[in-house]
Q: What sequence folds into this?
């Protein structure tokens, strides 16, 4: 099966981009907007509507394989590629990438994905968002050519173990939206609520707001959760505890130990308690913090996100044992071949893994992430797109269940 033509179009993502440095520098909130100029290069406003670029590969049997190029909310931060502006990259798909794609045999995925992920134009590597969407489309094309699900293609080409059940979902909710929180408890998300604290001020004096919120989450699950429902509590702090405590690892460890107690009887996972100035510094800080927690008999688990943006970054964090889990933030890794390898790497190193991404993606890229999860076995799959939780849980759950039904059907007919 070969690619006959390439089409591309621009569209909307499920969320927005935000210049976090400008927010932390004191920009004043104005509803969903912020007043003042952006700080991070590439932004024209502190908050901008998220945008994507859809890639459509027209195959010679008339079928169409699609992928979507998207970036994360906080583009340009902590070693990430700059803000993705689809209209600037659209001409690539009409020229260089079209020439590279048309006539290509898509009966295999991995070899083409790795070549696409290494590609450079004018001496510069393709933007991570471009590599992300392009390789999604290539995997979709191979699945169509082989009459298989994308998960089956991955399992075959990477000798990966196929899951028998859907991966547990980490539901992303807006902090303070208790009606939404109730709904994900009702739907028994494996972990929740991934509520974000993006400014040190959000934590409250002495981080008492964070402490009270954690205690309230645990209490509410106990009140309305079904018998036997024991999720993990997950909070994303975007480095705000580091803003509060600086490099005082003992102070951080003491606070997180108390926070873990507040979450009981549920286990607590904390993502990005600190954001350092480099990957090496991030690994050092998280490693010392993890050791401090274990010395206190604290079971709070640390998740790395910032400065863990590539397959090489994932390997560095895993080999250092610097945290308990990493978030494989799919758009940041560029080609989805890297996300596949990152999850398999974590499993081989005994490192936990959340196959995540961004609220700033689409239903299509989310469904492809679900396919990757089934073939690679991460601990959790983060709900996306958006932070509505309901929609993301629906998209991912239904994609995994449909796919498993097809895989069982294929196996029965083999």
A:
């Amino acid at each position: 099966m070969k690619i006959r033509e390439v089409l591309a179009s621009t569209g909307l993502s499920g969320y927005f981009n935000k210049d976090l440095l400008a927010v932390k520098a004191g920009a004043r909130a104005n509803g969903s907007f912020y007043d003042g100029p952006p700080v991070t290069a590439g932004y024209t406003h502190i908050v901008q509507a998220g945008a994507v670029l859809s890639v459509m590969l027209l195959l010679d049997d008339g079928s169409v394989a699609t992928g979507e190029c998207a970036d994360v909310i906080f583009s340009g931060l902590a070693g990430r590629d700059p803000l993705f502006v689809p209209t600037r990259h659209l001409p690539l798909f009409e020229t260089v990438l079209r020439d590279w794609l048309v006539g290509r045999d898509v009966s295999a995925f991995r070899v083409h994905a790795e070549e696409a992920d290494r590609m450079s134009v004018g001496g510069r590597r393709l933007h991570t968002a471009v590599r992300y969407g392009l390789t999604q489309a290539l995997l979709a094309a191979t699945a169509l050519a082989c009459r298989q699900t994308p998960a089956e293609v991955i399992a075959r080409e990477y000798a990966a173990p196929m899951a028998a059940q859907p991966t547990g979902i980490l539901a992303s909710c807006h902090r303070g939206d208790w009606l939404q929180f109730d709904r994900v408890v009702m739907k028994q998300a494996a972990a929740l609520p991934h509520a974000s604290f993006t400014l040190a001020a959000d934590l409250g004096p002495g981080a008492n707001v964070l402490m009270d919120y954690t205690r309230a989450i645990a209490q509410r699950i106990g009140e309305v959760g079904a018998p036997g429902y024991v999720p993990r509590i997950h909070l994303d702090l975007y480095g705000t505890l580091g803003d509060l405590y600086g490099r005082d690892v003992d102070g951080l460890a003491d606070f997180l130990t108390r926070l873990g107690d507040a979450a009981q009887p549920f286990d607590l996972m904390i993502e990005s308690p600190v954001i350092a100035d480099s990957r090496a510094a991030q690994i050092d800080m998280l490693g010392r913090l993890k050791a401090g927690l274990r010395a206190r008999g604290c079971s709070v688990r640390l998740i790395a996100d910032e400065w863990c943006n590539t397959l090489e970054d994932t390997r560095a964090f895993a080999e250092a044992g610097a945290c308990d889990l990493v978030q494989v933030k799919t758009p940041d890794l560029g080609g989805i071949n890297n996300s596949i390898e990152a999850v398999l790497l974590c499993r081989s190193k005994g490192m936990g893994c959340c196959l995540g991404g961004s609220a700033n993606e689409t239903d299509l890229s989310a469904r492809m992430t679900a396919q990757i999860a089934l073939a690679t076995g991460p601990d959790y799959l983060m709900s996306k797109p958006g932070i509505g939780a309901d929609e993301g849980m629906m998209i991912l759950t239904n994609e995994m269940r449909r796919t498993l039904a097809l895989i069982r059907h294929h196996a029965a007919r083999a």
